[in-house]
Amino acid sequence: MESLNLCLAAPSFFPTYGGAQLRFLRYLPGLRARAIDTRIVTGTPTANEHTEAQHVEQWSGREVGAILESTTPDGTPVYRVRLPDEKGWKRVVLFNRTVVRYCNGPDFRADVLQLVTGLRPLTIPWIRYLRARGIAVAYAVTIAPKQGSSKVHKRLFREWSERLLYNQLDCIITNNSPLKDIVREMGITTRVEVIPNGVDLRRFHRPEGDEERDITRRQLGLSKEDFLVTTIGAVIPRKGGELLLEAWLRVVKRFPSAHLLFIGPRTDQQDPKLSEFRDRLQQLREASGVPGHIHFLGEVKDVDRYLRATELFVLPSEREGMPNSVLEAMASGVPVIVTPFVGLSDDLGQPGREFLLSGFDEQELALAISGLLGNPDLRCEIGNAGYRWVKSRMDLEIALDRYAAVYRELVGRYRSRRQRNTPRR
């Protein structure tokens, strides 16, 4: 198999927490196995995105523009530029310059640039520059855009600039069909491929015995008879933590020994703009009457272990793409409840069969949670259906094969074009 060079670029990457970044981090070993030599170009996160003190100290002591070279856990080279701490055009320009310099450098020349998040109109000149030099440029659309209510002239300008920007690309890759439809509705004519995220079925699977499950539950203070309900994602308003806690006040009246587990970074504690949201979560936690049964675990590496110990997974989000947390819960045999978030599609299965769908209402969500907790047969039925769906359609290896095929096709087109344009002697 002929090898190719892939430059994976994102303004922030490991160890910064982010669903899309974590997903591509998991892709790296599989891409290498498919003869795709991957290098990562990234930046330092904004002040509100810092999650690990040791890395904050490492980055904050360097001058803006400095380069920090490292590797990911699997050994993939990372080329990181120290960016300004605040959002703005300076971050965008400096990051794009770094991407171009690295992708077209003397030590590593990319065949394909895969952009993950952070695409802005200011990126247009750099995309054109790279494509003119035979480097294909793809972008991953991983989440539905915000449904803004800005003034008409601002909205029209944004839509025009986004069309211009996205039409510079060789390929847009979305993780579900509704995102492809959204892209097309924006008037974008660039090629769009739908590639589901994929789940590592060797890591996320049903419990193989009670021992691991019992150990995890004891660490949380649960007995074998207690219920555990889990949600995964950064603690931010979009993920629906407030709605879940409002519903939980009703759930604990029927199931007073039930526990609720939040897994994901406490973004609400890091971002001053989320202080009211943070205070509201704390008020609801105290109002439950059993605050010790509501656990904020933070970011963990062994998410799979906690999923194998839970009775029910809930994602009350407002806006998503193809949420990996839902797929991973399904792969673990856990029944899932979601809200009708923007981006929800049939790629996730059918409501009432592979998962349950609840409205954005605390009473309705509480009824859905309580209904599953009180009905073990229905939990088993939904959990089994979700498991079968993911196992048959969402295997990580399938997603990796699709990405590799798209990359090779893009590279092949550029090589064919160069051959046609090369004069014969």
Characterize the structure shown:
The protein is α/β, with parallel strands linked by helices. The protein has two domains: 4-198 and 396-421, Rossmann fold (3-Layer(aba) Sandwich); 210-393, 3-Layer(aba) Sandwich (Rossmann fold), CATH 3.40.50. The protein contains 15 helices and 14 strands. The strands form two sheets. It has an eight-stranded mixed beta sheet with strand order 3-4-2-1-5-6-7-8, with helices on both faces. The chain has a six-stranded parallel beta sheet with strand order 11-10-9-12-13-14, sandwiched between helices.
Could you provide a short overview of the structure?
The chain has 425 residues and is α/β, with parallel strands linked by helices. The protein has 2 domains: 4-198 and 396-421, 3-Layer(aba) Sandwich (Rossmann fold); 210-393, Glycogen Phosphorylase B (Rossmann fold, 3-Layer(aba) Sandwich). The protein has helices at 19-33, 53-60, 89-103, 124-132, 152-166, 177-185, 210-219, 241-254, 267-270, 275-287, 303-307, 324-331, 362-373, 376-393, 396-421; strands spanning 4-12, 36-43, 67-71, 77-81, 112-116, 136-141, 171-174, 192-194, 228-232, 259-263, 294-298, 312-315, 336-338, 356-357.
